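Intended use. Records like the one below are meant for learning the mapping from a protein sequence to its folded structure. Do not use them to infer anything beyond what is encoded.
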Amino acid sequence: MKPKNVGILSLGCPRNLVDSENILASLDLKGHKITDMQDAEIGIVNTCGFIQEAKEESIEAIMDLISLKENGRLKKIIVYGCLVERYSKELKKELPEIDALVGRVTLNHSPVRYALTPRHYAYLKICESCINNCSYCIIPKIKGKFSSIQMRSAINRASLLDNQGVRELNIIGQDITGYGLDLYGKLRLAELIRKILIKVKNIPWIRLLYLNPERVDTELLELIRDEERICKYVDLPIQHINNRILKMMNRKTSRKLICELIDKIRKIIPHVAIRTSLIVGFPSESKKEFQELLSFIKEVKFDRLGAFIYSREEGTRAYDFSGQVSAKLKQERFSQIMSVQQDVSNEVNSRFLGKIIDVIIDEVKNGDYIARSRFDAPEVDGLVYVQSGHKLKVGDLVRVEVRDCLEYDLVGRVI
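Structure written out for the chain above:
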């Protein structure tokens, strides 16, 4: 095939972003030129089909490419990913302008990196799909059986990123605590991280994303505590706290176990930042059960929190549950959750006033610096607005004194 100019739109989560990077790296090795979509002959969109909002965004992106094709700007359109895996027949029928549909992307890493993130941080995906089979989630049907990448491959990829000057390595997967179960018959996340730490010499920040509460053990927590380069940041999606709702979600845990785990995390890792994710408006969620969740947020005071409105997805068990909550009520509950968390976040941030923290510079704009602390993951958490008496560049690690706090962000000056 004659080399072409290729552009890509990568939608959805960081796991999708890794797939998009691998797609581009493969095309680059074959001699194709990676360009902005406006200059492309072939347009690729890597879709997300997880919830309704993501599906709508994916369709909108495809329609934008179709418009470019109709105007003679694009010659071909290739659609990848989750939406294709769920709706390939419908897409083929309704959108004949699409030239190729490619569903599941194989989990492996290219020998080169084509970065869609800023050069100073990267994502290392170590597993695909999930072993939890939550009643609301379509991921196992989209992605297939849970699969881990070979340990040697993950370590080599981390080494490549290290050699390319990456300053922050985010180790990701739908559930990285399940790493190794399929390949080795046991959980080997802690072992993998130790081997990465031995091999990787220069990356100062390593962050673990998406730890399932059922498989967070003492060994992993002590590793996070003892290894200076691992960010003291635990991403622990609990989804809800009411026992009946947790059971309906097929979350094999309980309020008691969740509370015990949070206490354990905070005891083992001093000054840890715990992030969680919640679902509001799950089928049959009562006012009392929602109030229990609200009270729990006020009581536990998560350092970081994301909330999602329940999306009724065909193909999931929860799709047929009785007591579906109205869109209006789901939105009201979402707003209440975020309002409560805003107050909690303000209180959490106020603890940093006058403290000195490490930050990484993410962006430089007209002499202003936007950064993140060790307690903030890219794209999802708060920022630190940095004042400096000397020039800084993206990727620099500096120490700042926190001089002001906002609801979700901090303001500091380099010391």
